[in-house]
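# nightly structure sweep
# worker-07 picked up a monomer target from the shared queue
# config: single-sequence mode, recycle default, output format = structure tokens
# input follows
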Amino acid sequence: MSEDPDQNKAWQYFQTINNALNGLLEILTMGFEKDDVVFQAGIENLKILKENMVELLQHDYKPEEIKKKIRDLEFDIKMKLFFTQDDDKDKEEHGVTH
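# output follows
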């Protein structure tokens, strides 16, 4: 019985994402005390990510739907990473405080 190559590749991606989330958990554990609000928020977000990954994998979505959502997610992440950081630098350079 041979496995579906696409399904096998999807499982590899899932495992990679799961490993990355576990790595983030280790970083949080090393950098913060367990009663720290940032630690607790990070843990809650990691938990939600994992739950939603499993939920996503349990549904049969059309590839077009997934591709569009991934593009939207990538755009959103890039906007937050690059433009938020640039805005913060601009504010610091101009003496604006939060």
